[in-house]
Design goal:
The protein is 44% helix and 13% strand. By secondary structure, the protein is α/β, with parallel strands linked by helices.
Length: 303
């Protein structure tokens, strides 16, 4: 049996690490990556928000168990991290927060207020009044296209629009490869924060129909602050491994900007704009049979 792990709060963690071509295992009670030559590299798992597992990576049952105890999100991504295939939850949605999130998404007035708050945070100005969500989405799309064009001009990058095909990755231009690598990193960090806060990644307000709709909602609020400008800046340079350079730059940006400290309070602020109180349990519902020990991690983690 592994010793019980008390996770570090999400805001205090390193954001993301990419693992490529190695066996992830637990050796001498430590989380390690063993390469093909037998070299071991220890990873302080409890201090990392998300591990991005690239092709050529294998992971043992004990390593998955330890990651779950430590509250570290495991994500399986494509080469260079440009496509996210699956994710293993470090904890899961709390019933009270899940019901609160669902009640906001299902209430037309509350959902509109949440979307307006997202618009306000993203563009640092009040959302237009008397506009539907569809109309605000159209305004947002026009502004985003303008931002892409302005960044392209600033960095001297040829911009033909946001377009790429994961099945024909090499056919994509450098800037689309860079943007895909940057947003994949951001989505991994954001999903870890959503799960740590106890919410459901699938219940979105602007995005819908995807397992990570709420992740996309929250990530879009900060995307143009750092990762998108980083992608354009690096695409303008003559770097051979554009995806790797972008991943490393995003990792450093997440750490320097302390993004994880902002994401969970930002979610709470956005949802509070819906002006609904969390629903109370029905009188005939049963509480837990036993109480869990208090943990020092974020509320969404299983402890």
């Amino acid at each position: 049996m592994l010793p019980k792990v008390k996770p570090i709060a999400m805001k205090e963690r390193l954001s993301v690490l990419f693992i490529e071509k190695g066996q992830l295992d637990v050796i001498d009670s430590a989380f390690v990556v063993v390469d093909e030559t037998g070299v071991r590299t220890q990873i302080p798992l409890g201090g990392v928000a998300a591990l991005m597992l690239e092709p050529g990576t294998r992971i043992s049952h004990r390593a998955v168990e330890l990651a779950a105890q430590a509250g570290t999100l495991l994500t399986w991504v494509g080469e260079a991290g440009v496509r996210l295939y699956s994710a293993g939850q470090p904890g899961g949605a709390r019933s009270d927060k899940l019901l609160y999130q669902a009640s906001l998404a299902l209430n037309e007035d509350a959902r509109l207020k949440v979307v307006r708050k997202m618009y306000e945070i993203r563009f640092d100005e009040p959302a237009p009044q008397k506009r539907s969500i569809e109309q605000m989405r159209g305004i947002e799309g026009a502004r985003v296209r303008e931002l892409y064009s302005l960044l392209a001009k600033r960095h001297g990058v040829v911009w033909k629009g946001r377009n790429y095909n994961p099945k024909e990755w090499d056919a994509s231009d450098r800037i689309n490869q860079a943007l895909s690598a940057a947003t994949a990193s951001l989505y991994g960090v954001t999903e870890a924060a959503v799960l740590a806060a106890g919410y459901a990644p699938a219940i979105g307000f602007i995005h819908t129909g995807k397992p990570r709709s709420f992740v996309f909602d929250i990530a879009d609020l900060v995307k143009f602050e750092g990762v998108v400008p980083l992608a354009f800046a690096l695409a303008a340079k003559n770097t051979r491994e554009i995806e790797r350079e972008v991943r490393l730059a995003c990792r450093d940006y997440f750490r320097q900007s302390k993004l994880l400290k902002r994401l969970i309070p930002m979610m709470e602020e956005v949802l509070a704009a819906g002006e609904l109180s969390p629903p109370k349990p029905a009188p005939d519902q049963l509480g837990p049979a036993f109480e869990d020990d208090p943990g020092i991690g974020d509320v969404g983690y299983r402890s």
